[in-house]
Amino acid sequence: MVTAGVAAYLLWCVRSILTPFLVALFLAALLDPVVARLQTHGVSRGRAVGSIFLLALGAIVLAGVLILPPVVAQVTDLATNVTVYAENITRTAERLTRQADRWYESHQPTLTSLGMNDKPSEMLQKQAGPMSAAVRDVLDSVRRTLAGMLSQVLWLIIVPVSLFYFLLDYPILRRRFVSLLPVARRREVDRILQDVIEIFSSYVRGLSKVCVLYAMTAGVLLWILRLKYALFLGAAAGVFYAVPYVGPALSVVSIAVIAVTTGKSMAFTALAMFLFVLMHLAYDYGVTPRIIGGSVGLHPLVNIFALMCGVTLFGVWGMILAVPVAASIKCLLVHFFPRLTEPPILDDEQSENPSPS
Q1: Where are the beta strands (DSSP E) in 150-247?
Q2: N or C terminus of the chain: which is more exposed, having fewer CB within 10 Å?
Q3: Is residue 41 helix, strand or coil?
Q4: Number of H helices, E strands in the chain
Q5: Please, are residues 121 and 101 in contact by the beta-carbon 8 Å criterion?
Q6: Mean pLDDT in each 10-residue stretch from start to end of the chain (357 residues)?
């Protein structure tokens, strides 16, 4: 007990440097089922881990050579022309506001009776301050996030190296953790732990595949439409897809903003948004269920509730991990309360259908 207390105190003292190691351990737990499957085909654990790292390195190099340079070029061009695009947005907004004012004037008696006493231009002027503050907050948040990521450059070394060794010795680490528990509970906890890890692993692997395919499809679609910055928008759409509900909405808004700022017509903008939404629905109801499958098996309302809880407690990362965490909680509840999986039976139904004696 004293040794455990001393160890806990030391870990608390160095808690500021534990995060990359915890990230590596979490990734090792997610990748362990893949290594285990390779081992069932006669591949040694060391060779399986090495193969995974070589495959990941090859994918990173390929992406860095083929995708990263044009994406960086498009982002640079977008940053260079941001002033011109801002002027385009201003002109478009003024034109649409004038049209809205004329429509308001032609229907003013009806709209006034419905409680709309201000012209659209006047409403925009009233909301200009809060909208500007919201935009500044978003930009500041992005700036802080990027600064935080840049300050963790050392993680690029610590996480991969730690992941390699964690992955090599993960079964031993898991058994050692389980061995600290009472003997009567070891097998049960080990089974629950493996079930939870399998849920996370299946979900993350499936979501990663879907995000890559989603980014490729979105990039090709926007390239066919001849929309500027198609590659950058496609890559961003693939990243945003990892955040359910909110991510695709951000992608649609981004496409609309880029289309308007680069001088496209409103008809083209509407067409691009419509085709993108169709593509998104095809993924949501066709591709994603086939790839991710029943790895979570949650009701849509539970998904939404979990996402709201995740974003409230932990922000964007909470939204990304909310679904597998909720599925893990469901797994624990089903394990401890098996009757939850049974269809509900009312008392009158039970009396009408008595069990045979």
Answers
A1: none
A2: C
A3: coil
A4: 16, 0
A5: yes
A6: 70 76 86 87 89 87 80 77 72 77 79 74 65 54 56 76 89 85 83 82 84 93 91 89 82 87 85 94 83 64 76 75 80 74 61 53
For 5, other C-beta atoms within 10 Å of its C-beta total 9
201 touches 32 (CB < 8 A): yes
Q: Measured between alpha carbons, how far is residue 355 from residues 338, 342, 344, 349 in Å?
A: 20, 16, 15, 11
Q: Environment class of residue 238 by beta-carbon count within 10 Å: exposed (0-12), middle (13-18) or buried (19+)? A: buried
Which residues neighbour 252 within 8 Å (Cβ) at sequence distance 6 or greater?
A: 273, 276, 277
Distance CA 292, CA 228 (A): 32
Q: Residues 6 or more apart from 291 whose CB is under 8 A from it?
A: 206, 209, 210, 213
Q: How many CB atoms lie within 10 A of CB 324?
A: 22
